[in-house]
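Issue: copy button drops trailing tokens. Both records pasted manually instead:
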Amino acid sequence: MSDLAIRNRRGDTRTVSSAAVSRLGTAVQGTLFTRDTPGYDEARTIWNAMIDRRPALIVRCRATDDVLHTVLFARELDLLVSVRGGGHNIAGSALVDDGLVIDLSAMRDIHVDSIQRTARAEPGLTLGGFDRHTQEYGLATPLGINSTTGIAGLTLGGGYGWLSRAHGLTIDNLRAVQVVTAEGDLLSASERENSDLFWALRGGGGNFGIVTRFDYALHPVGPTVQAGLIIHPFDDAATLLRRYRDVMADAPESLSAWVVMRKAPPLPFLPTAVHGREVLVLAVCFSGPSTEAEEALRPLRAIGQPIADVVAPTPYVAFQSAFDPLLTPGARNYWKTHNFSTLHDELIDQLVAQVHQLPGPMCEIFLANLGGAVSRRSDDATAYTGRDAQFVMNVHGRWESPDEDERVVGWARAVHRATAPFASAGAYVNFMTADEQERVRAAYGTNYERLAAIKAKYDGDNFFRANQNIVPATQQPTPSYLVIDRTAETPPPSM
């Protein structure tokens, strides 16, 4: 192995001797990848194909001790570091060019205590792996909607899914963590121990350390839920959205119904004539008693004349992966997000108009329906801000060719601008792209100053900065190593 040229936190390049890298390789159980190592390109590939970064060194950890050794190694040499969990983050924060990646993807153990209704999971676990284990006991916790998403990044950003109206955000079900700090200390954090750190980790992203163990509360769910799609023609979308808004205002918390507006994929239960045409989809999950499902769903089914209604008893794990075919890795993705406390009539009109401008068959606008248990906690209960939001919008640009970058990114930004006058406080940081560093303070609202103070306590020199960065209160703002597009309108050719 030859010496490595690795970027430090000031942005300069330093030489790290092959002997030092070899000592690290001997100290850890996991695998080291340099640019000359077989498997390097696979190791640096993540979900969003717009992210094309070339780290100098990737350490794929197998255990918490590996994380400790690697943090101390990077700290001693003042190296620029990023942390990879599932590699699903839209901004590509898992990777840094010419730096060191601490890769947690091989740490996938989980232990379920069915008596106490808890799960202890490592950070490389995906939602699919988590759900398969907990559903063996008919238990679950609110997570996302794509089984290949990693639990770590999803949780640290807040986390929500089909169960959130009934059971809150993912972080509302987090009971304790084990975390490696920027100084290389191993701490436990909970409401009783290092409670300030625990508060910040629940929504503050990867700013405060590397979580190597998550302890979650579980709830009786499934193994079968009433779930599926109700698909409407788009001709009367504005009226459907107004009726949907009114129905969900009175819906039981065990019912979630998200709106997806896109061109219809060639699903087998849709008429061929509908394929490729705009549709309004209600993605529905009722997790309450099966005897109550029909009554709970009746108002939703009465709001229009759908093309198809395939809501039926479904294994929870199957519905958790139902959208996987639309979210496979390898495509280019660019997102924009807003919170909405309600769907104003004018906002609905704007959304409908923007769907008519969809730039490609994989692009969509979806509205996640929250409220319920999410809104019953105050904004200062955790770092996550925006709990009054009843809907979270994701403008999802997705396409294949770099030649389409400007058109699709431009469309996503146009939707974001057009809907901004109706947005409520906060923003879901997991949906924020690499060019939104200036939005971080607003995303956390009144919680930002407290977060900055906790950042100064646990990471005063901003060791963990490859993220939607919260600057330590003791520092002036520093450039984010994720930002590659500093203009308002011109999309980057790649990330």
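Record 2 (pasted manually too):
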Amino acid sequence: MKTTRGKSRSAIAAETTPSDGGASRLSTVIFGLLCFLPVFATLIFGAVDTITWVLIFFVWAAIVLCWLGECWNAGGAVINTSAIQLPVIGLLCIGVLHLLPVATTSIEPNSTRFFVARLVVFLTFFAASLAFINTEKRLTRLVTGVVIFGALMAFLGILQRLATPEGIYGMRETPFAVPFGPFVNQHHFAAFMQMAGGVTLGLLFDKEMSREKRVLFGAAMVVMAVAVALTGSRGGLLGFLAVSVFVIGINFLPGPVSRSGEAETGRQKFALIASGLAIAVVSLGTVLFLGGNEQLLRGIGAVNAEVDVSGGRLHFWPVALSIFLEHPLLGSGLDSFAVAFTKHDSWAGFLRVDHAHNEYLHMLAEAGLAGIAAVGAFVYLLFSKGLRVISNTDGFRRSAAIGALAGCFGILIHSFFDFPLRTHSNSFFFLLLVVIATVSVEKSSRSRRRHRTTSL
């Protein structure tokens, strides 16, 4: 196999995929499908229903077929060889080991089998996103789309809460959960807002953005913040706060010199911080005006109608640890927590518990030390690569990476108290944010000309 500087032909093919003006039709179709899938999954109740995965598999098949066609036209594999895909592959291998016919280790093989099938879809989506979101133009469209869609979903959620309909879209009832927007679970809607809000807030700190765009992004940020407050989700508010702290903290660090050759001054940074505080004040005032006092107080923990302030977590977490101790290496099997819980539950079946309400303990119980190692490796690669992009870029690319990494950080914090990524639409958006934060993109010819002009 022909190599250049240690890179395989497949890696070279990925790097030489035609950019902006020369993108093939199949490449454009794949990019469109990659943008469509997370939006579609969100609108169909977060893709939490098994039947919705029939539709998702059709979209996945279309991506695979178009990708194969693009590889045929390119004369080689069109892939991105980023190491951040390896932990996902590792988790998939753990699932396969759980299902080996010689010695099946999953205590619920059917659930594990379907989980592995979903992992294949997520891995394909992630790998395709890394390979085809490869130009500045596509990245800009994706980031703008995330902000617009997030703002629309926030507005829809606020309207739904104010109208108090009997179900999602006025037709689907959720007797065992509190819905918000298209989501069955209000806490997972708040998690989606963390991701979209992180991207939006990151762009607001781009000092090269025009005043008109800044006003629009600021309005979008206010709508998202209000929506999160109205969910009353404590984990959601904590994650949203983590997003804000991350963006502000990164922007206080010394940044690269901008295209104009000027470094950010302290006055500019504090002006942006003041803008952020103004957004917070406007959002708080809007929540109070809309009558969201009770949700806001619950979100900050000032009131709680539950006897157990932890919402049962102080019982779920020790049970998860007990499951792990019984299956320390590979766990009880991916997506087997509900079955494993019954054996270790001291409440004798008083509740059906599908999740540990702590994603890390949940992974430890279902996939053991091998699974938590894969999660740790993914988080390490995400932040090492994301911070490298932030350090080596400026302008829109840097702001988009900061916002995406902040959204991921918010989700990782929220995951200590909930299971936001078990809502599958959130998983798709999370992977998109990972791509935005870490992928290397080709600059458009216009950007290159502008950069050369300012350099001269």
